[in-house]
Automatic annotation (TrEMBL):
Its cofactor is Mn(2+); Mg(2+). InterPro entries: IsoCit/isopropylmalate_DH_CS, Isocitrate_DH_NAD, IsoPropMal-DH-like_dom. The lineage of its organism: Bacteria, Bacillati, Bacillota, Clostridia, Eubacteriales. This is Isocitrate dehydrogenase (NAD(+)). Residues 4-328 form the Isopropylmalate dehydrogenase-like domain. It is an enzyme of class 1 (oxidoreductase). It comes from the Bacteria. Pfam families: Iso_dh. Its EC number is 1.1.1.41. Gene3D superfamilies: Isopropylmalate Dehydrogenase. Keywords: Magnesium, Metal-binding, NAD, Oxidoreductase, Transit peptide. Belongs to the isocitrate and isopropylmalate dehydrogenases family. It comes from Clostridium aestuarii. One of its GO terms (molecular function) is isocitrate dehydrogenase (NAD+) activity. SMART domains: Iso_dh.
Amino acid sequence: MAYNITLIPGDGIGPEVMEAAKMVIDASGVKINWEVAEAGAKVIDEYGTPLPDYVIDSIKKNRVALKGPVTTPVGKGFRSVNVGLRQSLDLYANVRPVKTYSGVPCRYENVDLIIVRENTEGLYAGIEHNVGDVAAESIKVITKKASDRIAEFAFNIAEKQGRKKVTAVHKANIMKLSDGLFLNCSRKVAEKHKDIQFNDMIVDAMSMRLVQNPQNYDVLVMPNLYGDILSDMASGLVGGLGVVPGANIGEDIAVFEAVHGSAPDIAGKNIANPTAAILSGVMMLKYLEEYEVAKKIDDAVAKVLKKGEIVTTDLGGTAKTMEFAQEVINNL
């Protein structure tokens, strides 16, 4: 069986790490017809937008995409392509597994948690406006529908993966209505999943606890902004953004992408770490129920990282992007 999958190379280091991921996946034996769809800053002059309709159409047709990082201007310019994809395709669940790999320099051992982030609303809904020339307002939207389904998703992923605990992260002590709604929905969903432990924690306390004892946590579920911040912070606990994959999942469409950004300062130098992009491909293969192939690639990545002989500069080595990818292939 051959799968038709949309491949979005992205900006900056995107084309390099995505080529590395594609090379590893193709070498694993799974048959994929890649449909390349360009998005980001490079297509604005031609299409007038960083997210042309044909990209959305390709993903809707193929139902699965592997995406590279896309640059988002800070404080000006076009709106985030990531947010646009998530909202237009209703990719409501952002899933970011965070775990330690032997050989990757970090301060912790035995970290293995999953951050499940609501992906479509909260402060990232993009509802904001100026108040004259003296202020700006952003409107945070939390709905019962979105809160129920992200909590249900978190418990389902915990049950499917044999995990024991779900922690809801919030700021309901201050935002009593919006975060209060999210927390109440999580509590009600937890009542339907008696086999999974449930607790909740205020987001600032959660930040401290993750830094102190990340091994104590299993599945964390939270609104949009908190998930973005805590997943980056958690990445730092296990060696950095270069080793953390991610997925954006809807009812029947999924887009897989590394947590890291486009890193334009090192683009084109063939030194970017493709681990997160490759592991995002592993998540994609699991989604396609190609579990054997996914495990084969994951094990090969783990072997290369543990040896530490052919790794990129962020992991203390001197290997180029494609050298790392080739070493993973050698260990398949």
